[in-house]
């Protein structure tokens, strides 16, 4: 996924960009961070950018576009990237379109974080006060005075991008005043609807789980035939026993029948003898 996050200074673009990086395994291309790194390194470009940023003005396009072009060519940006703080103007957006076209890349989404400017000023004032209480150094471009100037620049130069990307059917707007996790969920739903690939962490865990499940299924399948074989081995023995028992029972029944027949024959013979004797006695009396 190649995404642009739009919104005024303090709208939470940087925070959401970091969360998207962790979830989707893509890189964050923050011109502000890259320029601040150049300032910290004291390079010629950094020194020039330091003066411009301290005044709340925008860095020239030729510097920013060159940084973006080089960064996109790096291997870790092949899976996608998030542009945070760029483009800031319509000419920069047009330059980005040409750059992506030249590199045969496509922009997938432009997400606007819409916020209340007065609420932003209150946030910055609170943050600066807390940093000073802790004894931390406050960035020269992170004060209410500079923010007021930057908001004015955003309205005049960057807000036209909303119309620019809306015309190209790339723009989606999210309420940036919601809680951080709510904004994150809204962005996630939007990206899924646009066909974003599932998070890398989920895909990896699913890939690890699947072979394990298959292995268990294989082991179960291997065990079941063994049990079946045992049963099959036992069944002939049982059948043989039943056959022998059945034969024994049949033999006993046959023996009993023979005894009964013999007893009946004996009874008949005795009865016949008695009857003959009676007849002989009667004849003798006569």
Describe what you observe in this structure.
Monomer. Residues 202-286 are annotated as: Disordered. Residues 30-59 are annotated as: NMP. It is elongated, with a radius of gyration of 47 Å. The protein has ten helices and five strands. The chain has a domain at 2-194: P-loop containing nucleotide triphosphate hydrolases (Rossmann fold). The termini are far apart. The protein is α/β, with parallel strands linked by helices and 286 residues long.
What structural class do helix, strand and pairing data support? alpha/beta
* Named CATH topology of the domain at 2-194: Rossmann fold
Topology as a string of helices (H) and strands (E): EHEHHHEHEHHHEHH
- The poorly predicted ranges are 205-210, 212-216, 220-234
Radius of gyration, in Å, reads 47 Å
Helix content estimate: 55-70%
* N-C termini distance: 136 Å
Total helical segments? 10
List keywords for this structure.
286 residues, alpha/beta, Rossmann fold, 5-stranded parallel β-sheet, 10 helices, 8% strand, elongated
Q: Summed up, what is this model?
A:
By secondary structure, the protein is α/β, with parallel strands linked by helices. 70% of the residues lie in helices and 8% in strands. It has helices at 13-24, 31-41, 44-54, 61-72, 90-102, 117-133, 144-158, 160-167, 180-193, 200-285; strands spanning 2-6, 27-30, 81-84, 109-114, 171-175.
Strand and helix map with partners:
Blueprint: E1 2-6, H1 13-24, E2 27-30, H2 31-41, H3 44-54, H4 61-72, E3 81-84, H5 90-102, E4 109-114, H6 117-133, H7 144-158, H8 160-167, E5 171-175, H9 180-193, H10 200-285
Parallel strand pairs: 1-3, 1-4, 2-3, 4-5
Helix pairs in contact: 1-9, 2-3, 6-7
Subunit structure: Monomer.
Enzyme class: transferase
EC number: 2.7.4.3
């Amino acid at each position: 996924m190649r995404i642009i996050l739009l919104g005024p200074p303090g709208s939470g673009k940087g925070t959401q960009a970091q969360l998207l990086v962790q979830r989707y395994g893509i890189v964050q291309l923050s011109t502000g961070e890259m320029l601040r790194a150049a300032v910290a390194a004291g390079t010629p470009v950094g020194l020039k950018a330091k003066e411009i940023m301290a005044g709340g003005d925008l860095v020239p396009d030729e510097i920013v576009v060159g940084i973006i072009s080089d960064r996109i060519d790096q291997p870790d940006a092949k899976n996608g990237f998030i542009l945070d703080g760029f483009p800031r103007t319509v000419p920069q957006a047009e330059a980005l379109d040409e750059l992506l076209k030249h590199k045969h890349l496509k922009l997938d989404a432009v997400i606007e974080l819409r916020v209340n400017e007065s609420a932003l000023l209150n946030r910055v004032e609170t943050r600066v006060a807390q940093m000073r209480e802790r004894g931390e150094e406050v960035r020269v471009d992170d004060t209410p005075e500079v923010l007021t100037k930057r908001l004015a620049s955003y309205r005049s130069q960057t807000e036209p991008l909303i119309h620019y990307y809306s015309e190209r059917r790339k723009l989606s707007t999210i309420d940036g005043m919601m809680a951080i996790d709510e904004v994150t969920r809204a962005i996630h739903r939007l990206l899924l609807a646009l066909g974003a690939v599932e998070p890398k962490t989920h895909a990896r865990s699913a890939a690890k789980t699947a072979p394990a499940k298959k292995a268990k299924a294989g082991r179960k399948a291997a065990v079941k035939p063994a049990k079946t074989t045992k049963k099959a081995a036992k069944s002939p023995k049982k059948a043989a026993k039943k056959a022998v028992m059945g034969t024994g029972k049949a033999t006993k029944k046959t023996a009993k029948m023979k005894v009964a027949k013999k007893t009946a024959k004996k009874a008949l013979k005795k009865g016949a003898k008695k009857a003959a004797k009676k007849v002989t006695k009667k004849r003798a009396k006569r």
